[in-house]
Amino acid sequence: MASSASRGPRCRERSRRGRSARSSVAGGRSRSRSRAREGEPRALRELSPLGDLGALAHSEEGVEAAKSSKRPVRNQKPKGSPSDPNGPAPAETEGHGEPSRTSENGAVLPLKAPGKRGRKSKTEMLLLKLSQDLECPTPEPICVQKMLGSSETAEGLDTSPGGRPKRRAAKVALLYLQELAEELTSVYQPPALTEGAQEPQPELERIQKKRRSRRRKEDGTDSDDPTRDADFVPSKEILLQAEEEEGSEEPLSEVSEPEVEVLRGHSGKTSSAGRSKPQCRGLAPNGFHNSIMAPVEKCSSLTCSLRDQKYSQWEFPDWIPLAHKWTCLSESEAAPYLPAEEKSPFFSIQREGIEDDGVLYRVNRFSSLQPHEERLDVSFFVGGPVWAMEWCPSPEGSAASQYVAVYCHRSMEETHSVAGLHGGPALLQLWGLGTLQPEQGSANKAGLAYAIAADHGCVWDMKFCPSGAWELPTAARKHPQMSRLGLLAVAFSDGKVVLYSLPHPRALQRSKRTQVKDGSFHKHIICKVQCIATLQVGSIQAGNVSECGQCFSLSWMPSKPHHYLAAGFYDGTVAVWNLLTKSLLQCVHQPDGSLKLYPFQCFLAHDHAVRSIEWCKADSNFLVTAGSDRKIKFWDLRRLYEPINSIKRFLSTEVAWLLPYNGVTVAQDNCYASYGLCGIHYIDAGYLGFKAYFVAPRKGTVWSISGSDWLNTVAAGDITGELVAAVLPDLAINPLNVKRSSDRRFPVYKADLLPCSPDGSGGGEQALPLTRRYSEMVTKSYIRFRDTDLRSFKNFPSREPMRRMHTQEVKAELSLDRLQLESLHKVRFSPNLDSHGWLVSAGQAGIVRAHCMVGLASGVSRQLLPERRARFSSLYGDEPGSPSPTECSPLLQAE
């Protein structure tokens, strides 16, 4: 009994020593886990939803995901092997802090930070620490912010500093842990930290400091910039991008990476985990890809919101048209101003999907064809080559009749010198197209409302006041005042810019006509008009003859009160006038009651003529100019001593600055272009540093370009007679990676000059005459217009117009030995919401055509139109709209 009693304490002592020896290996792990959780609030430790078992499971998953990559592990084999009794015990790598060490007698030694050779990779450390943080989530969505310093970027997770290949599997593992953390934090939200609580995991701060110091040594800098020390938090866009690159098994759509990022921010469905899915796959109802139509929806809503801020309902209240300043001309008085051609060239129209009837049309001067019942297109003849054209703005939702101002040369063979000043007769025509709707046209023919006879030479450009100049046609005005349709600025070849206050056609008809000498009026209303103001370069002390040369381009300030007007001249000068100035040095009252205005600002923009000028619609402090010196310059009107950016490229003919972007779309001549680079480009102003985006290639000179803020689309007409439209991508991001830009452009119509037989019918096989005389050309040829069905774009790449356009881009035939009767000189999108899908175009033949892009109508615009009409009715009441064109003036019927 005594021996057994004495054996008891010794057995208990040996069993205690055995337990101590067996637990020596796990001692470091428990100590490191306790160290890692020092400073952590007790409430978070007690309310942890996972516990040790859950943390161990998730850390093993993270380690397995990290092992799936092929990157070699940095950790080397420690000295000694596991079978060596004298060697150190293997380090525990279960994701709970630093590995432990034991001495020969089993005692636990203090922890020591691993050296450079034994340190784990950044991705493995990230996975281990993430598994730790999953034990006790914090109010932050994920503890990546505590692990990564400023020296690590999004690319740092893909490529190591040593240049090792990218590791996509590590990204997928990181994404998987992110999803687990989001699911857990959505189920359980821990209590917020108290004011006296310390920041958890102080050991991580020490690791961050070491990494930052090592990074500074590698960079060779020791900057104290706080932006470099800011913690990096991977955004959801980066994680979703990693998922699309590695984890997604669905076929990706043909959309570039920047477009996907924009779509994430603007549309998408929210999943249960809180992520937004991009809506960039699939086809829109009109047949285009959703990635193509998404910027259209965005621009429509943005245009509406900015117009509410920038546009006005009423401006320039003193500039009202007066009846006694409009004198109607007789037949003999109007004859010198009329175009010489009384009949249009022969032309035919082939519409896609409709069998061609082979009919050749020839329209009388100032007459039009009946609009097509199905395709809605309109065609009319103005009498000569068209070189200036502009839509008259109307309020949103007014449902008013739409008007287009047109200027044409008096003769088909007439040319004008750009050097030197010259005057002569000119005729400004105002055409009424009726109440055009985005998806339905007018039931009546287009008609000439009235015309203005001027003696200032040919017209190079004209611009309407963007807003605040239109009033109801039934506005109560006492004689001699007439209801105002708009304010029009016209640039003439004598160097002057003339402002006209245009009345509504019905108001002009109601006013008493001035008696003419022979007592017979012209069958159309053709008037001599006293202008509101004449804008001239120089000063009061200078002579009347401008030293700047002819004025080639105009731009009206796009934001209210629209009191600035800019113009570009032959010698490279840009002048800016203040239309509301009261200064005696800038404003001179003439004996006839009109004003003569001098500019308050002039600067030399180019070494040669300013061919195009455009104001920034989003910020009125900025201008862009394109000159004959092949330069495109961006200007800040607050610092004109140097341009913001100057780009020397090809010879630019016209620029279009769309509302949402800080760059311009440029139409170019092919005289200086390399082979394959001529056409339409988007050029950034320089703020973002994007390279030029090739919108569409063209084989000939692009004479005109126009952009629609509602449709995010540009249209251009060239010397080959093709009218091409292109839906732009979101150019607020880098367009370098835009895929398949050829799917974004489409032809509106193509005009071809074909020989005709002696009896006047088409189909002749003889060659076209090589002559520049219109009289010979019109008797032996006719123009064939081939229109595209713009109601839908389904299966568009395989349709005949698209195949013809791509063939034309590769194998275009251009003959410069004859008169280019089919060429297009002017293209204009309607700026009005009520007719925002309509596009007018005209050229050498003098035939103006209007087309409706029904298929591009967006869902946003369909919603905006009823809202704006209800708003307009609440402001002005249910007033009748403008009369139809047939009520304004008699029409000549087409043959």
TrEMBL record:
Signal peptide: none annotated. PROSITE patterns: WD_REPEATS_1, WD_REPEATS_2, WD_REPEATS_REGION. Part of the TFIIIC subcomplex TFIIIC2, consisting of six subunits, GTF3C1, GTF3C2, GTF3C3, GTF3C4, GTF3C5 and GTF3C6. The keyword Metal-binding does not apply. It comes from Strigops habroptila. This is General transcription factor 3C polypeptide 2. Residues 35-45, 216-231 have a biased composition (Basic and acidic residues). It is found in: Nucleus. Its main location: nucleus. Required for RNA polymerase III-mediated transcription. Component of TFIIIC that initiates transcription complex assembly on tRNA and is required for transcription of 5S rRNA and other stable nuclear and cytoplasmic RNAs. May play a direct role in stabilizing interactions of TFIIIC2 with TFIIIC1. Residues 242-260 have a biased composition (Acidic residues). WD repeats lie at residues 603-638. The keyword Zinc-finger does not apply. Residues 68-77 have a biased composition (Basic residues). Pfam families: WD40. GO terms for cellular component: nucleoplasm; transcription factor TFIIIC complex. Keywords: Nucleus, Phosphoprotein, Repeat, Transcription, WD repeat.
